[in-house]
Design brief:
The structure is a single chain. By secondary structure, this protein is an alpha/beta fold. It folds into three domains: 51 residues, no CATH class; 183 residues, Rossmann fold; 78 residues, Helicase, Ruva Protein, domain 3. The chain is built from 16 helices and eight strands. The strands form two sheets. It has a six-stranded mixed β-sheet. A two-stranded antiparallel sheet has the order 1-2. Helix 1 packs antiparallel against helix 2, helix 2 packs antiparallel against helix 3 and helix 5 runs parallel beside helix 7. It starts with a helix and ends with a helix.
Length: 335
């Protein structure tokens, strides 16, 4: 049981809206219960505190604040960051076992963030995602934000990168200041735009300076935010980048089994009964997760417009073939 002084401190910190002190005292109460042999209660208290902390960010003074009240970028930062509050979960994704285990480990470490930091350690939070388009990289950033109950900030490279010497690095500094000020998932998509090898022939001086700045900033970043970079061209990245990330995750086109699992999951209540797999694996082969999702969504819309509670197998097959034709045409145009 908390002592009278601890109870008074909890109430006082709550009235003063001093969340930092409140959680500090709450952790003292948990430690006290552990010493008394109340291990289960102590564990429950710590888990409650860790879960609550993951839903808090920090304001400019470093004080913990509710995410919803402070996450909207303002001023020039509004041109550099786009914020959303995803409801996606890891269960919404169909990934291979290795990627699933990596993401589960990241989520668990983030939920135990406070206790890990108390021991002078850092949870995994700097991730590099590599793989073809549409294989789940963007969805991963969204799912991590949804699982942790924190905002997702998309870093707008079109606004970040300018032709003026020094301006891009200054804007990047603003982004990293935001990373330190407010906890969230910060997503750098198409990261090769700033992470290309410094010795490449088509490299320009400004991009070299931006890459050097990024390397320094991510190296010294000690925030509680997650930094996620994604690229379709890992071979173009500077080698020095890879060791700056805690995890490098590889994404691939789905296997036949993964494609079928994604289709069934995405169809939900619109899944036909019985669900005939005949020919479906061949139609889905070679399509990315994003393309499969689009095909399923098209078949669901077709069912809705025909006042049907379940999709027609033929409509799904037609949608898959349509996606395949589009993908083939795009590939030919890019040659």
């Amino acid at each position: 049981m908390a002592s009278s002084e601890q109870l008074k401190a909890l109430i006082k910190s709550h009235l003063n809206r001093d969340d930092g002190h409140f959680y500090s005292v709450a952790m003292q109460v948990a430690a006290h219960e552990a010493k008394l042999g109340h291990g289960k209660l102590a564990e429950e208290l710590r888990d409650m505190i860790d879960a609550a902390k993951t839903r808090l960010g920090q304001d400019a003074t470093g004080k913990l604040v509710p995410i919803g009240s402070a996450a909207k970028p303002r001023g020039e930062l509004a041109n550099l960051l786009t914020v959303t509050y995803p409801s996606n979960r890891l269960a919404d994704m169909v990934l291979d076992d290795l990627a699933t285990k990596q993401l589960q480990r990241i989520i668990k470490e983030q939920r135990f963030l406070a206790r890990i930091k108390e021991q002078g350690l850092s949870p995994r939070r700097k991730l590099l995602l590599v793989g073809p388009p549409g294989t789940g990289k963007t969805m991963t950033a969204s799912a991590l934000a949804g699982e942790l109950g924190i905002p997702l900030f998309l870093v707008r490279l079109d606004s970040l990168i300018t032709k003026f010497m020094g301006e891009t690095a200054a804007k990047l500094r603003q982004v990293f200041d935001a990373i330190a000020d407010l906890r969230g998932v910060y997503f750098f998509d198409e990261f090769d735009a700033i992470g290309s090898q410094r010795g490449m022939g088509n490299d320009v001086g400004e991009i070299r300076r931006v890459l050097n700045s990024f390397l320094q900033m991510i190296e010294h970043d000690q925030s509680n935010s997650l930094i996620i970079a994604a690229t379709n061209h890992p071979e173009a990245l500077d080698y020095a980048l890879f060791r700056r990330f805690d995890d490098v995750m590889e994404y691939h086109l789905p296997t036949s089994e993964q494609a079928l699992a994604l289709i069934r999951s995405r169809l939900g209540s619109f899944t036909p009964k019985p669900f005939k797999k005949d020919g479906l694996q061949e139609q889905a082969e070679g399509l990315s997760y994003a393309e499969l999702c689009r095909a399923v969504d098209e078949s669901i819309k077709d069912a809705i417009m025909h006042d049907q509670s379940r999709i027609q197998r033929s409509a799904l097959g037609h949608a898959l073939e349509e996606r395949r034709l589009i993908t083939t045409k795009l590939a030919q145009n890019n040659k």
